[in-house]
Design brief:
Layout: H1 2-21, E1 22-29, E2 35-38, E3 47-54, H2 103-111, H3 121-128, E4 133-137, E5 140-145, E6 153-158, E7 169-171
Antiparallel strand pairs: 1-2, 1-3, 4-5, 5-6, 6-7
Helix pairs in contact: 2-3
Region (Disordered): 46-100
Keywords: Signal
Signal peptide: 1-22
Amino acid sequence: MHGSLYAGLFALALGLPHAATAASVFRCVDAAGKVTFSQRGCPIDQQQALQQAENPTPGNGKPVPMATPKKNAGVKSGKKQAKPRELVVTGGQDDGCGNLLDASQRRQATIRREVRDGMSRQDIESAFGRPDKVSTQNGQVRYTYEADGNGRSRQVTFDEAGCVKSKAKKKR
């Protein structure tokens, strides 16, 4: 008795991997035409159809050759080769400060705690932190950083666009 039970379970186990690759699912279509799939059946108000779902192993194991370029592609015999075209940028990012610094120069100035023309208020605050004093005169903003470890203070003046107007002035 137990032998036939074990044989039946063994046969069932052998068939499971094959059953996992192909399964039946319910295809449900509602009144609006929306299609959903379910393993448990469809609601009463939807049309139900049994559909076979297969998940085959990708590829058939045969290698697919890559496309081979034609010899001397782009060069026609007997004709002069055309000059490469110049790259024209029609739209670029404007940092609002005249693009005087590229990203690398801006990052280096921030790390070295330098004030350079073309930096914004945000760049200065990234390098030095919040200013100790902020003053405004004629549309220009001035950040003042009080004495550092050397007893020096720093002033940075920004124009109306929020860009460094001139190099920082160090006071003694």
